[in-house]
């Protein structure tokens, strides 16, 4: 028996029926054609303009994707504010950034990689990495840094790679610059202005595997002997650019490869005087002083005799 068709009012009532708990997608009523406003919202969300789940939007001139914020090559003169809170990889390379505000990294606890290469940085504020406990890779190459102060990387104990190369004005590394970086494996100090490097700056790095120090104007005097001795003992497990590291002074070793210097090269640094040496020097000094007095005495007598002889001749002529 055929059932009678439902009245039109019943169909309209069904189309407005609300979904119930447990309904599958096939059982839900068709919402109808998409509206322009909904399409606009979808496009905005897809473009990443709306705030992210991390609580901040992507900065202008930067791209953000999968916790990677790329602001490189944008001719920036300052660091972008308000990064996504979950940023893990931040690239600010190839810009014109001269300063980084104190506390800039405080809120970005997930930061693993920071790329600041090829900028105009002269120095970094104290405590910049105080909250960057998960930072592993730091690139500060191709800047204008002049020194690496004590505890510069304080609290960033997870650092594995630090690149400070191609800072031509870098002339001083504090003995405690890398203090506490037990996990550091790669350190690049090449092509700077370093003439001396304290052994204390490196001997506290038990995990160091790669060390680049070539291209610096090293002065291979007595003060460099402790560092070179330490490097020779670690050269098997610490890869270094030994062919590029050369001495710029003193003149007798200018141009010599840094790692070619041996203990014999620093033999003059260990010359010590014994008691016999001091006694001999004292004796020689005493003899020289007596000889000087005797010589002066004889010269005085000779001059007096000459004066008397000259005076006697004058009287005879008169």
UniProtKB/TrEMBL annotation:
The chain crosses the membrane at residues 278-301. Residues 216-270 form the LRRCT domain. Residues 1-28 are annotated as: Disordered. The keyword Transport applies. GO terms for molecular function: potassium channel activator activity; transmembrane transporter binding; voltage-gated potassium channel activity. Residues 57-89 form the LRRNT domain. Pfam families: LRR_8, LRRNT. GO terms for cellular component: voltage-gated potassium channel complex. It comes from the Eukaryota. Its main location: membrane. PANTHER family: GH08155P, LEUCINE-RICH REPEAT-CONTAINING PROTEIN 55. Interacts with KCNMA1. This is Leucine-rich repeat-containing protein 55. It comes from Physeter macrocephalus (Sperm whale). The gene is LRRC55.
